[in-house]
Structures are given as structure tokens and as C-alpha cells.
Design goal:
Layout (H helix, E strand, L loop, with lengths): L1 E6 L2 E6 L10 H15 L6 E6 L18 H19 L5 E5 L2 E3 L1 H7 L3 E5 L3 E3 L13 H20 L3 E2 H7 L4 E3 L4 H13 L3 H10 L4 H15 L3 H12 L9
Parallel strand pairs: 2-3, 3-4, 4-6, 5-7, 6-9
Antiparallel strand pairs: 1-2, 7-8
Length: 251
């Protein structure tokens, strides 16, 4: 599910489940957390790149596995997920996202937790949480508005429509746009440049942008846990898996 290579001090972590477009699952979450903790302790690793296999970054949460029976179970799920969010957001070494294809839902959340987002010309970004009866999670309500402003974030979250890489660059959703076959090379170059920055100012700058994240995560955990038990979420999940339009009832 997660492959790792290290070359010249840059660790490349690759989400590798092309059949699901690298969907974010509990297994991926655990493997990514373990890899981050291992690499932060490795003095030979100066920076990381997070990418996906098979021409896509991450198509979002694995809805087939997103089934909870109780509010407590849902809250426990988010306790584990938020541990990864906090690790990424406060990571002491640079992390660059190398995005090809889709970065949707949780995939977009993961990308925006990185320090720099490099995307291919064919990349697409979306936050279609409302179409499955949920709110944005993994800190996206914090990171998205920080990147593109409240107005654009509101439209992106409410409509859930995809944004092409060129438009994503224009509004600041991504930092670099390159040809698809150059994404990983450019991302590694960015990671290498960031690794040359003095560590303390780098870490303190990241801490500045963490302000407000904890409040969002606390709210997200309570609200999303409740939404996961609604009829609308069950309908949205079923409609997605059955490739049809959901019929929401507001309950």
C-alpha cells in the first residue's frame, strides 16, 4: 500500500493502490504514520516527497471501508486520523506533495498538509464531501482557506466541482505546475532546496501556520462522527459505490 525509496537524502513515500486510485484507508494511514515517524528520526533523511502510483495522487477516503456503527466508534476513527494530520502539519522536516491525476477529498487534504504542492498539468483537485453526506476533514477546513481564501474555499467545498491544475495554480491551491512526467523530479528538487533552509526558522514558520488547526480538528471530530451515522451519509456512500446520483433527505 505504501512504498518508500531513499535517494540522496530524499525519502519518497508512494501511495500504491492503483485499483482504487490510491484511496486513503486505515492501512494506508497506519503505514504513512509509521513511515513519517521512522524518517523523522533518521538523520540521513533530510526531506520527504509524498506521491501516488498509477498516475494518481489519492482519490479520497475508501468509502467501502468507511462504515461505523456508533458515535464512539466514529470518534475513535478520527482520533487515529488526526494523529496523522498533526504529524504531517507539524513535521520538522520538509514534505513536498507530487501530484498527478486526482487529488480528491482526503487526497486533497493530504496534499495541503505538505509544505509545497507540485502538480502535473493533468492533475485535478476536488472536495466532494457533501456528495457523500459529510464535511471536509483531515484539517481541510483549515488548510484550504489558508491557501485560497474563505470565498474560494467556500465555493470549492459547497459545490465539490473539480479544479484543473492551471486554475489551481492561478488561485494558489498549488505552488508549481509542470509537465506530468516531470512532477516527481521537480518535487524532489523542491524538497532538496527546502532541506537546505535553516531548521529552526523552518520549523517555527510551520508552527505559525498551525494556529487554529486544533480548534478545527476538535469541531471536525464531533461533527463528522455524527454525520457518519446519518441516513444521508449511508445514501451518499451507496450512491457513490453504485455510480448513481444520491437522493438526500436531510436526516
Amino acid at each position: 500500500m505504501l512504498h518508500e525509496t531513499i535517494e540522496e537524502g530524499i525519502a519518497v513515500l508512494t501511495l500504491d493502490d492503483p485499483t482504487s486510485r490510491n484511496a486513503f484507508s486505515p492501512v494506508v494511514r497506519a503505514q504513512l504514520q509509521e513511515a513519517l515517524q521512522r524518517n523523522v528520526a533518521d538523520a540521513a533523511v533530510r526531506a520527504l516527497v509524498l506521491t501516488g502510483a498509477g498516475g494518481h495522487f489519492c482519490a479520497g477516503g475508501n468509502l467501502a471501508q468507511m462504515q461505523v456503527e456508533t458515535w464512539a466508534q466514529a470518534r475513535a476513527r478520527f482520533a487515529e486520523t488526526h494523529a496523522l494530520v498533526r504529524t504531517l502539519a507539524a513535521y520538522s522536516k520538509p514534505i513536498v506533495a507530487a501530484v498527478q491525476g486526482w487529488a480528491a477529498g482526503a487526497g486533497l487534504s493530504l496534499a495541503l498538509l505538505c509544505d509545497t504542492v507540485v502538480a502535473g498539468r493533468g492533475a485535478k483537485f476536488s472536495a466532494p464531501f457533501g456528495r457523500v453526506g459529510l464535511i471536509a476533514d483531515l484539517g481541510l477546513l483549515h488548510t484550504l482557506a489558508r491557501r485560497i481564501g474563505d470565498g474560494r474555499a467556500r465555493q470549492m467545498l459547497l459545490y465539490g466541482e473539480p479544479i484543473e491544475a492551471q486554475d489551481a495554480l492561478a488561485i494558489g491551491l498549488i505552488d508549481r505546475m509542470v509537465e506530468d512526467d516531470a512532477v516527481l523530479t521537480v518535487a524532489c528538487a523542491c524538497a532538496r532546496r527546502l532541506s537546505e533552509v535553516a531548521p529552526l526558522p523552518f520549523q517555527l514558520t510551520k508552527q505559525h501556520f498551525l494556529r487554529g488547526l486544533e480548534e478545527v480538528l476538535d469541531w471536525e471530530r464531533e461533527v463528522q462522527a455524527a454525520l457518519m451515522l446519518t441516513e444521508d451519509h449511508r445514501e451518499g456512500r451507496a450512491a457513490f459505490l453504485e455510480k448513481r446520483t444520491a437522493k438526500f433527505m436531510g436526516r
